[in-house]
Amino acid sequence: MGGVSINAGIVGGAGYTGGELIRLLLNHPQVQLSFVHSNSQAGKPVHAVHTDLLGDTDLYFTDTLDQDVDVLFLCVGHGAAKTFMAEQQLPVSIKIIDLSQDFRWNESSKSDAVSAYDRVFVYGLPELQRQAIVKAENIANPGCFATAIQLALLPLAKQNLLAAEIHVSGITGSTGAGQSLSPTSHYSWRSGNLSNYKVLSHQHLHEIRRTLQGLQEQALPDINFVPYRGPFTRGILCTSYTRFYQTLEQAQELYTTYYASHPFVHISTDTPDLKQVVNTNKCILHLQKEGEYLVITSIIDNLLKGASGQAVQNMNLLFGMPEQLGLQLKATSF
Amino acid sequence: MGGVSINAGIVGGAGYTGGELIRLLLNHPQVQLSFVHSNSQAGKPVHAVHTDLLGDTDLYFTDTLDQDVDVLFLCVGHGAAKTFMAEQQLPVSIKIIDLSQDFRWNESSKSDAVSAYDRVFVYGLPELQRQAIVKAENIANPGCFATAIQLALLPLAKQNLLAAEIHVSGITGSTGAGQSLSPTSHYSWRSGNLSNYKVLSHQHLHEIRRTLQGLQEQALPDINFVPYRGPFTRGILCTSYTRFYQTLEQAQELYTTYYASHPFVHISTDTPDLKQVVNTNKCILHLQKEGEYLVITSIIDNLLKGASGQAVQNMNLLFGMPEQLGLQLKATSF
Amino acid sequence: MGGVSINAGIVGGAGYTGGELIRLLLNHPQVQLSFVHSNSQAGKPVHAVHTDLLGDTDLYFTDTLDQDVDVLFLCVGHGAAKTFMAEQQLPVSIKIIDLSQDFRWNESSKSDAVSAYDRVFVYGLPELQRQAIVKAENIANPGCFATAIQLALLPLAKQNLLAAEIHVSGITGSTGAGQSLSPTSHYSWRSGNLSNYKVLSHQHLHEIRRTLQGLQEQALPDINFVPYRGPFTRGILCTSYTRFYQTLEQAQELYTTYYASHPFVHISTDTPDLKQVVNTNKCILHLQKEGEYLVITSIIDNLLKGASGQAVQNMNLLFGMPEQLGLQLKATSF
Amino acid sequence: MGGVSINAGIVGGAGYTGGELIRLLLNHPQVQLSFVHSNSQAGKPVHAVHTDLLGDTDLYFTDTLDQDVDVLFLCVGHGAAKTFMAEQQLPVSIKIIDLSQDFRWNESSKSDAVSAYDRVFVYGLPELQRQAIVKAENIANPGCFATAIQLALLPLAKQNLLAAEIHVSGITGSTGAGQSLSPTSHYSWRSGNLSNYKVLSHQHLHEIRRTLQGLQEQALPDINFVPYRGPFTRGILCTSYTRFYQTLEQAQELYTTYYASHPFVHISTDTPDLKQVVNTNKCILHLQKEGEYLVITSIIDNLLKGASGQAVQNMNLLFGMPEQLGLQLKATSF
């Protein structure tokens, strides 16, 4: 592989997903990070906000947009991405990878891609539609819980096997809620604490249902999802179960086949624990058969496979680079 | 109230539930803690093992049983309680409160109480059968997850309303697994980590099903339970849901009525978080209606309402003392 | 002991120390908590803010002061206590226990007690001057680090043995910084994290120096204090060392004698760990001799012995009640 | 840079430092990891023990030594490295990098390097003696606390400025104690807990004193070190202070100059926090002047710059590769 070939910019670079993107792009062998935009931090060194980057970059946050980039990542939060696109006159030659939910498909989407501001946004879950992504011009990056749950269920939907009600519980770390200060982000509150929220009504169900219904012919059953806030910073673990009338071996065959060509998804024969994937772009799946139920455990790092890592994976695909480039990360493990 | 009226002994006092019992009984205004038995720690001061008790007690662990007590708590672990009862010739005048699962009822129990070693053990969930406990001679103290889940479902079973499949997810702290060292109890592993275990096959389902089936006439539906190990030390939070064709207000009325006379159960109109009950004997319940589902969140401290606190509550009832005596504990809160 | 004898009020009851006071006073056998004042939360139930109190109290926060109390606790933060006293015309018959630093003595204090607003505030460290507290009318409650460090050094100062430079490092939990939201209180930042702050310049050194200099005749040497923020919620652990030319046994004798009549201070022969005192009003000390140095480890719960617990201890003394009344708390242990 | 040029083996690969080495070497562009030796885990897949490596390697632990390697890392623990070297007849062409303390210099070392088993071990602190390492054949990798404290003091020793007593406090995460199970490694104990240990007597003082005395001409003053166990998994933060009669600017100039050519050491003008370096090979230093004292804060990841990362840094130097190769790691940040 030759020298740097892509110029990238980040909008909303002072937040958690923005910071992860900077960390990834600074080490990506084929990317030059041209600028990091932030309204709130403009003028400060990037390492003054993302303090682990001290010594890694001399970039400063800027409040002006440099249009001389090949790809622009939007890390501006839900709603703000639409506002940004409406206000800016970006040449279509700049590919957009948006990490908000603004351009993701949802259950009421009429077509496969979301059109807005003279652009077409492809839902960026590579394990669902890598070929569409390779040909795409703009990407709507999936949600974190949405990624963990879809990866747990894709092989079943593909085989038309989602017939009975689906039950999911999942636990997310604090970085999933971003860096804004709130009572439930206070250390004194959250340390050693737990709560559920948006029980049976989490907004990611929209994109999940759209994906799964798009894959299977029969009507999708209800998906009941109980999300929890847990006392840890990074990662999502989901347990999904639904009735499945084949054997465990058949399920394993089905999942192994489905994910054979997808480098970030691994099927574990042992029960996984969250820290196997923390600080990596992996998703680890585990299958179990209990009575009539197939139980699927899925784990991801919410900031990587659930956000910025998947965004880089999508960028790699958009620009014809190897899918894993810059994403073979050392796990934290502990 | 007058002076000390009860002499108590603890067998297996070096473990987590034993330690909690000692903490409770030392502060209980009507109990004299006569001895703490431990095979492994005999001869050591109690505060050498339960180091927070420095200055609170001069008791030493002993390996001989003093039979001059009114009540004996068994904190010896599953299986060991039976062995202990088989080996000892305890006069029936000593009431036994066993914290293991050895004498709890389960789905195949023919009658309401478990008979063993010339004794009858009553299942000690006061919010289910306080009157039976008041008249009992021996108690089988419920399991921790079993307590949290039963308290979430009792009012529905009472009204014959458990008609459709029940789904429960629950997360427990590390003290639930006791003090033995294992890879999943290592700090480096568990800190910031999560895993599920015994998915859809947790052993507490037996006592839960027995209780609920005993309350309602129609056949009990399946209960699907996904337990998690969480990165915290104390507490259990469970989310249960099942189809319920009445309104939220009706559900609240039903629960409020059911628990009106039970001092440790509180219905919260706000979503609860685990630390509301940590270091207390409370159970807080929260009700929510989502579509056809009634969602019940229940939280307890696994070592108190889920073990030693409930054991003291049972002792209070057995001996005609106020149910809350010695159990109005300051929450840790943080 | 008879019925309720004291009426108490709390100003600034919505914060951390205010919450702890409420928890303590609700369970105190000789106190009636008359009102809890809070400008920010007036009108809300107390349990809406201190959610662990659900079921324990029907009090509402109020924004009017009821002057019909025997004692008023000020939990309003540094600076605000002075403002409050200046603005209110409180009868001197109401005893004030202030938890801020506003009325604590410091190195430049001319006399033993601080006079302000027609009142005299006695520095409320019972292990230093219980007799002065018993006779006091108003109390300035010591700081948390100040309590841990003073209890480590009092016996040496008393014997005129603080001759050489003193070195202290100490680590505090997040509740020490109160409930206001800040970047260093964010869970994502603080979990698993550490930092030092105010190195060699912590404000508590003023009251510490004043206390120690007041005890010993010779000039007090420098005290170098390195404070840390640790990833936990409750507790302070300090390690102090200074040259000491006697034996360990002599040191132990000296400390044991000094604290013989003080029920909350315990000398441990084993190295202590922080959780021995969490959720209690204890201070545990440990002594060690290394070369010429005497090393003193001291641990307290910053919200109890370091704040609200000590305030109740002072109240007990002010009103002639047993020093430990309402303060024999179950440790959290885990 | 061309293809793979070095074959590496690891002995003791099932522990924490062994696992980190595997993670690093699998991603190192110039290394082929030939084998991972483990007596306890031989025959199992490497990812069965280091479960985050699922999908990254098909290696199995082996109990036979393959001598066809260029470098062998010993991760076998203190004492065991000597035993291993005594029992094996390894050709001297295999360079040894030992992570234990067995071949580190200490205060009583007569010469600069430690000779044993026909080999000469050079103390592998690149920021002290990179040129000696480049020419070395075997490396004794420094201890974790030793690295953090030496990096804090090297520039002062170099300038002969360590004249007055040095005071250090430092806090380490749980991985510093390895994976063996012990009461202080139990999650229920360590979560939210703190303790000091080996106060003023930590074994790393030997190598620290040897290094510093080797640099400066005048006699080294006493170093007083208070180590703590903290409730987190990775990282070390140390605060060191000693009298320094120049200005802060002069100190900064001195440190900046000393570390100008050392890519992993960064001087921060802001107070650092531990997570800036977690999962990286960096050391961040911060300087502060308080009265006569210069205060130096130093942070490292104990498993990387404090162990396996430094071992790879040493390997890079031994084999003439760029010092940072394979060590530009994404920080965990949260």
UniProtKB/TrEMBL annotation, chains A, B, C, D:
Residue ranges constituting the Semialdehyde dehydrogenase NAD-binding domain according to the UniProt record: 7-136
UniProt pathway annotation: Amino-acid biosynthesis; L-arginine biosynthesis; N(2)-acetyl-L-ornithine from L-glutamate: step 3/4
Alphabetic keyword roster: Amino-acid biosynthesis, Arginine biosynthesis, Cytoplasm, NADP, Oxidoreductase
Record-linked SMART domains: Semialdhyde_dh (SM00859)
Principal subcellular localisation of the protein: cytoplasm
InterPro entries: AGPR, AGPR_AS, AGPR_dimerisation_dom, AGPR_type-1, NAD(P)-bd_dom_sf, Semialdehyde_DH_NAD-bd
Pfam families recorded: Semialdhyde_dh, Semialdhyde_dhC_1
Enzyme Commission number: 1.2.1.38
Keyword Cytoplasm: yes
Catalytic activity, reaction form: N-acetyl-L-glutamate 5-semialdehyde + phosphate + NADP(+) = N-acetyl-L-glutamyl 5-phosphate + NADPH + H(+)
Active-site residues, record numbering mapped to chain: 144
Segments forming a coiled coil: none
Entry's localization field: Cytoplasm
A molecular function (GO) term: N-acetyl-gamma-glutamyl-phosphate reductase activity
Keyword Acyltransferase among record annotations: no
PANTHER family hit by this protein: N-ACETYL-GAMMA-GLUTAMYL-PHOSPHATE REDUCTASE, CHLOROPLASTIC-RELATED, N-ACETYL-GAMMA-GLUTAMYL-PHOSPHATE REDUCTASE, CHLOROPLASTIC-RELATED-RELATED
Alphabetical list of HAMAP family matching this protein: ArgC_type1 (MF_00150)
Function (record text): Catalyzes the NADPH-dependent reduction of N-acetyl-5-glutamyl phosphate to yield N-acetyl-L-glutamate 5-semialdehyde.
Name the UniProt record assigns to this protein: N-acetyl-gamma-glutamyl-phosphate reductase
Gene name of the encoded protein: argC
